[in-house]
Amino acid sequence: METEEKKDKILKQLTEKAKTKQDTYKQVLEVFNSLKDILQEIVEDYNKSIIDIDKRLLLEYTDKGIFEAELKIAGDVLVFMMHSNIFNFDRDHGIRKISYVKNNELAAYSGIINIYNFLSDSFKYNRMEDIGYLIGRIFINKDKYYYVEGKRQLGFLYNNFGQAVIDKKALKEIIETAITYALDFDLLVPPYDTVKIASVGQVNQKINDSRIKTGKRLGFQFNSDDVN
Predict the structure, then answer these.
(1) CB atoms within 10 A of CB 37
(2) Residue 204 lies in a domain
(3) pLDDT by residue (tens digit) across 18-49?
(4) Is residue 214 part of a domain?
(5) CB count, 10 Å around CB of 82?
(6) What is the per-residue pLDDT for 9?
């Protein structure tokens, strides 16, 4: 390849692909900041109804920095994390079959906001070995078109990439769906065989370090949650 050809190729990559990624990042960050605002509004709204019922049930919002926010709901914490990078879908992904993407390959580049579900005690008692679950992730492109992938409700309600622009109403619906899912997703007793043996050293270490590993589906395959 001649020098001028290489230069042209590099310039094309910069002016098209790189610019699209920068534009997409800016859009996703803007959406994430709106999501933070909505989380605060939800906390204020719900707490007005909860405070006279039981103060222990009050929702709590925590801003953890540019790319992270937490919402505590009773015994659960929803962690919303924006990834700082921009991604593309693989060639076999359903998104690439949509005419909107077929007509504009750059439209497939998307930022991601992940939604994790943890037990609130995991943070309260600093149980570093506890596990959380990715219950949903929001893909957003340069035009603010979005697609939500996730468990149950989160995976079936928003299959509209290239059709709907993500806005305050959509974000609130996603958040409230995630809250509903987390509250429905119970902590189950682990199978007996997975916890029946422990050494003295393991017990002492776990007591000293609060490292009794806990998760909502500890000992179970998470995909079992898909079974009705």
Answers:
(1) 11
(2) no
(3) 999 999 999 999 999 999 999 999 999 999 99
(4) no
(5) 22
(6) 81
Quick one: which of 127, 122, 124 has its CA closest to 206?
127
Position 6 scores a pLDDT of 85
Comparison of pLDDT for 223 and 130, the residue scoring more = 130
In which domain, by residue range, is 154 found?
3-187
The rounded distance, in Å, linking the Cα atoms of 154 and 133 is 13
Q: Tell me the β-bridge partners of 116.
A: 79, 134
Q: Give the count of domains, the chain.
A: 1
Residue 216 lies inside a defined structural domain of this protein: no
Residue 168 in any domain: the answer is yes
For residue 112, CA distances in Å to 31, 145, 167 come to: 11, 12, 15
176-200 in b/e form (b: 16+ CB < 10 A) is ebbbebbeebeeeeeeeeeeeeeee
Q: Which of 138, 164, 140 minimizes the C-alpha distance to 149?
A: 138
Tokens standing for 138?
Answer: 């929001």
pLDDT digits (tens, 9 = 90+) for 43-67: 999 999 999 999 999 999 999 999 9
Nearest residue to 79 (alpha-carbon basis) of 67, 71, 88: 71
